[in-house]
Amino acid sequence: MTNTLQRIVIVGGGAGGLELAARLGHKLGKKGKAEILLIDRSRTHIWKPLLHEVATGSLDSDLDGVVYSVHAVKHGYQFMFGEFCDLSTQAQTITLSECFDHEGKLLLPQREIHYDKLVLAIGGVSNDFNTQGVKDHCHFLDTHKQAQEFHNELLDNFTRMHQSDDNTALKIAIVGAGATGVELSAELYHVAELLKSYGLGKMTKDKLNISLIEAGPRILPALPERLSAAARNELSLLGVEVMENTRINEATAEGFVTSEGVQIKADMMLWAAGVKAPDLLTHIAGIELNRANQILVTPQLQMQGTDNVFVLGDCCGFLQENGQWVPPRAQSAHQMAQLLEYNIPAQLTGKPLKSYHYHNYGSLVNLSRYSTVGSLMGNLSKNSMFIEGKIARLMYISLYRMHQLAIHGYARSFALFIAERLLKAVRPRMKLH
């Protein structure tokens, strides 16, 4: 009688999920100690902090994305295309919804997948706070597909303005002045400057009118006030209209309506305010959630009420000893993946599990090619250290390199760096299709 391999299923190939799949693939999958299965509703991975660059065309996801099926072969795990929709902890199964092709024909039926150990890493989405009209009229930047939809409409507007006699500005309104909203605002001005190099010289940055709307008293609330002010000043110099203490009551086809009844007209609207776990979690029996739909977990990152389900990333509700929830950030997901790389094999062999402790290493915000601001905490200084300019830019780039190291290893990451340098010399600086 032969023992069947334990099946470890990871749902979600974001920063934490993909890193964990690669780590467990090398530790268990390649050595025949367990079967590692990664499930995602997309076929490719893009690091979420770079989605604003996909949206503007600064990053070509066809060239810079990670194809899960190819990555799986190299790193000792299996990949399955599908969208998670239900969970039964008693039967130890997850359900994947029906999948349709681009013509609307059934590609794959609803399926049930058995697991011995399950990791839920389904990420987070923008929280529209049930604001009227937002779902109907606004873009979001939660997925690669959404970023591509924004990019397509942006190109259509650039083309329209270049080939028409209309001299009015292209009005883009962004709600939410966290990292995504701030970085997108700056990146839009950068690509507008590039257009003249690609035959769209009539669409200049002077014809770009961006409104960045924040309900709170200042932009970038996660950063110290000094850096928030520096970023605000930089955006104002670019031409961004920064609107703080401005609450949105409604989104219409013409733009946003504030709580004071003021209309902010816009040709394109994007919602980047707040983060919550997907609403589908509220319909699954037996899962305890916090107000942001995040799954409540034990100190070992196990879902409350079961030993065989772990949670990481934006959908993980981890309450710290100081009474604050671990923030939904890439560094949180990375630290959780590192812990589960130990805890899951430890549980398989009967060893005690370790507890999770979040370490805040600071924040960095990149204002395209214009500036970078941030604060570093923890290892480099007992107190926070403020950084700006070229040093901050270099450290921002290093975060992506560290992500590449985590999912590819040193050899392939170095090869990718060389390939990027070579491609940069021959390919356009922005995607125009």
Nutshell version of this structure?
By secondary structure, the protein is α/β, with parallel strands linked by helices. 33% of the residues lie in helices and 23% in strands. The protein has helices at 15-29, 51-56, 61-64, 68-75, 134-137, 144-162, 179-194, 225-238, 330-348, 389-408, 410-426, and strands at residues 7-11, 35-40, 44-45, 66-67, 78-81, 84-88, 93-96, 99-100, 106-108, 111-114, 117-120, 125-126, 170-175, 208-213, 241-243, 248-251, 255-258, 263-265, 268-271, 275-276, 295-296, 309-311, 316-317, 362-367, 371-376, 385-388.
Provide an overview of this structure.
This protein is an alpha/beta fold and 433 residues long. Helices cover 33% and strands 23% of the residues. The chain has eleven helices and 26 strands. β1 (7-11), α1 and β2 form a beta-alpha-beta unit. The radius of gyration is 22 Å and the shape is globular. Mean pLDDT is 87; it is low at 378-382.
